[in-house]
Structures are given as C-alpha cells and as structure tokens.
Amino acid sequence: MDKILMTKSDFDYIFEWKERHKDLVRRYVSPFKAIEIRVDATKDGGTLIYAKCINEGNILKFNITLDKNPIGNFKLSKSINGTCSLLKDNLKYAAENKDSFIQDILGLYAMTMAFITFGDDVSPDISENECETIVKNMKRAVSKSSKGSTTHNSNNITYIFTKHKNKLDLAAKGSHMSPRGIFGVRGHFRHYKNGNVIWIEPYKKGLPNNKRKNKNYKIQTA
Fold it and tell me: Rounded distance, CA 36 to CA 63, Å?
C-alpha cells in the first residue's frame, strides 16, 4: 500500500486550501485505490495518525491507528450529493465522540485526495468536464508512478509534500542531494493549467566539473 507522510505544517496548508475548494473536496475523488495517510503532529504536541483507506467506488473502508495504538475500522457509503453514510463501525473510541472522530478522518482523507488530484492552483469553479479530465489524468499519472518509478520497492511508494515556489507538491520520498555539485530531483506529479497531470521520474541535475562538456564556438568575421 502506498503511503503519504504529512507534517502538521502540511496539514494546515491543505486545510486552508480545503476552505477555498469545498465543492472539490466533497467529490471524494481519489487517484489511489488504497492509500495510507500518516499525519505526524507529535512535534507540536499532537497525535500520530495512521489512516488506511481502501476506495471501492461508492464504498470507503478505513482502518485507524493513533499513536501506534490500533483504534479499529469503519466503512462508509458515498452518495452522489457529497455525503457519506456509516455502514459499519468497529472503532474502540468513546461513544460520545465517535461521530466527530469519523468525520475528522473522512475530512482528512477527502481534502488530501482532492488536493493531490486537482493541485494547488486549481480554480474552485472548474467545470464538470474539466474535473473529470483532471481526475482521469491524475489516475493515469499515479499508475505510471507505481509502474515506472525506481525510488521504491515492490511497487509501494512513500510520498511526501515538498515546497516549490511557495506551492505544495507531492513527491516520492528519497535522497534529494548528491555530492560534487550533482543534485537529485525527486519523482513528482506535475499539474498543468490545461488539466493534464503527469508523473516526472526522478533524475539528477548538474555534473562534476571533469564531466562537463566543452562547447566549441566558431567566430565569424565580416
């Protein structure tokens, strides 16, 4: 199962994005059939959340661990009007807080998947056709990353969020810096304004001085 690692700072950033894109979040889109979201807020005095979700079309199955303590699982049914109904609940959680806890986990999943699918710069007012195109393109990009990336084993990828030009991007976790002036660019998803989404394979930039190619220039005289 692929994993997404999220810090408290990442969570806060995506939460603010969600407030501007509520209609997109309510679509409960996901380019992943199965994904584990890990939110580590322990450095800020918060909780370590492990939320595993399997998306079966109109059914969402969750398995939750808090601070390495298994809490249990629950299952939801999605409706076309952007709501979810509880089908099954095996959570070891205080009864009076259980409904709000389920809603929080669902919200975490929905906003993270929407942010990943549509990207940081998407307009909140995109059309239905544009939305369907982006979702289709994102699923294709995720499929390519799983099949072609060299930064993971057994087709399981661990993703992290990285800042690029003050925007949050999803990238494959891995070594980023290399010695002697070479640096690696992580595999990452790239969103285009036309709705296309592609997976960029990891690559290296820069060359050692002794491997740089010299260019010859011909000087033309009048």
Answer: 9
3-state class (DSSP) for residue 166: coil
Average pLDDT over residues 154-174: 83
Residue 190 lies in a domain: yes
Q: Could you give the CA distance from residue 20 to residue 204 in angstroms, rounded to a whole number?
A: 36
Single-letter amino acid, residue 32? F
Rounded to two decimals, the pTM is 0.80
- Give the pLDDT mean for 125-150: 82
DSSP 156: B
Give the count of domains, the chain.
Answer: 1
Q: Average the pLDDT over 165-177 and give the result.
A: 75
Q: Which domain holds residue 127?
A: 2-205
Token pair recorded at residue 13: 């950033």
> Burial, 51: exposed, middle or buried (Cβ in 10 Å; 0-12, 13-18, 19+)?
buried
Structure tokens at 198: 């592609």
